[in-house]
Amino acid sequence: MQTLQKKGFKLTRQRKVILKVFLDMAGHPSPEEIHKEIRRRGDSLGMATIYRTLKVLLEADIVRKLEFGDGQSRYEQRNEEEQHLHMVCKRCGQTFEAPTVAVDWLFEELAKIHEFELHGHTAYLYGLCDACISSSSKKHKKG
Q: What pTM was estimated for this model as a whole?
């Protein structure tokens, strides 16, 4: 929370509530999921306040905005020391994170080839999770 103030943004009560809830949540919450959790905890902030605060958190480099192809923006805490890939199941929408250690060299090589100064990366892999593959296999065996 002090990072917000250090970067010149006011730390209002609403921003504290939203940031606290966001940091407590696991995964990649959407604004709607953040709103639902805030209400569950007994506070009543409007969606416009949540969207404005997420925009401020983006500008302050505290969060990263993610698009998993489901038409909904999701957010995760920024942590440059822990680069990872997002694997997204096209059937159930579940997301998994995997460290990029095995492919970091590839990103660096691509940047070098294109004379590009790499500051970080985000990658999405789309496919089917094990549970969805298993349920498809069971359906085909029955038919």
A: 0.68
